Give the backbone structure.
Amino acid sequence: MYILGIDIGGTKCAAVTAEYTDGSITLIKKEKCDTDLKISPEEMIKRLLGLADGILEKKPDAVGISCGGPLDSKKGIIMSPPNLPGWDNVEIVRLFSEHYGVKVRLQNDANACAVAEWKFGAGRGSENMIFLTFGTGLGAGLILGGRLYGGTNDNAGESGHIRLDRFGPVGYGKAGSFEGFCSGGGIAQLGLMKAMEKVQAGTYPAYFKKGMTAEDITAKAIAEAADCGDETALEVYGICGEYLGRGLSVLIDILNPEVIVIGSIFARSGHLLRESMEKIIKKEALTASAECCRILPAVLGESIGDYAAVATALEI
């Protein structure tokens, strides 16, 4: 199969072509562009179609589109994602189908990434797998019984909305949520709180110097400081790991997966999280369920968005 994949994000979009043969994917060409929120969704889609036309060598056999939700994958409609203001009830599948005359599939980006890691990455060969994004936000894609599970209206897997504590960093519009503790923004919030404690005690952590503002604190900067042995940075990632363990324990007890694949921050900084995470899972999760569940970093790396869009086309 010759496949066209489209990855739509709040800041960047990409078009990628690939060949699918005997269960293996070969990525061929890719072009990226900025997501221009100053123009209409229809104009942005025209730009994406032009981007795709520029890399296609022939008519695609199928098209897959990966985009942040909420969306209706059955009707092929993007429904007002928070990172795409103005994209209200956009019939993107119809527009791509009319342009190429082939079947087109739309999927939530977390679900699409789950299918990609399941078919081509760390979850390959499993029947029951959970994928967690753990990047800017925290979403999940569920592979249950050897197939993607989307729920009644495509909202299954919104694990970031689970409240893990009464107080804590804000994520998903909820203080103390799973996303609040386990996301790039959440780690930055934890880092700021711990930095303020140190500053008021007369010292500065390595990731926060005099003159810096809250915007200067990032999960990456804290991780770099932790890797250099900074005690405050290590404490921040230790707290994040504890709450990651709490959230995973809930998922393990309810869904009994054989593997949980975690992307982005965990893939880069899992060594800072795993010890405290595993300690909590051992304490909180059912032993029989925890012992048969492997927790692995995603392996598709920076290309996961490309594989996700292609995997969405393969659902057709």
Remarks:
- The mean pLDDT is 94.
- Residues 231-255 form the longest helix (25 residues).
- The chain has eleven helices and 14 strands.
- The longest strand covers residues 24-34.
